[in-house]
């Protein structure tokens, strides 16, 4: 096997492991529902995205980004619960395909959005902007998902 295949295999295994690690808390934690959990985790990580723009030293940055990651880790396991609960079984694969595809759209759009904001307003500004975007999404999610319950 060529080296690139081993590397890709290891990265794929890492992807599985990180997802399994995230799901452990979703399964073991309190059953408060993905609507509330997604709202909370996005507000949490949005707050720490915003706090990233206020840091003044390396150690505070490490702490803030750690807390950001703690919130963000709940996103996909709870998205899975939402899909399982609100999407018919025959359409779940397509739903997940759309979710994963749009994550890559986000990756493609990020430099087109972040760089101009950073050039115009400084390195801290994108953290404030995207922190606010996450809070707005949380509010919209809580309202929209309330109709499905």
Can you walk through the features of this model?
The protein is mostly helical and 149 residues long. The chain has 2 domains: 1-30; 32-146. 83% of the residues lie in helices and 0% in strands. It contains 6 helices and no strands. The longest helix is centred in the last third of the chain and has 30 residues, at 92-121. It starts with a helix and ends with a helix.
- The helix fraction, in percent, is over 70%
Helix and strand sequence: HHHHHH
Distance between the termini: 50 Å
Largest sheet: none
Rg, Å, rounded: 17 Å
**Overall number of domains:** 2
Q: Mean pLDDT, as a whole number? A: 89
> Strand portion, in percent?
under 5%
Q: Tally the beta strands.
A: 0
* Mass-distribution shape: globular
Provide the low-confidence segments as ranges: none
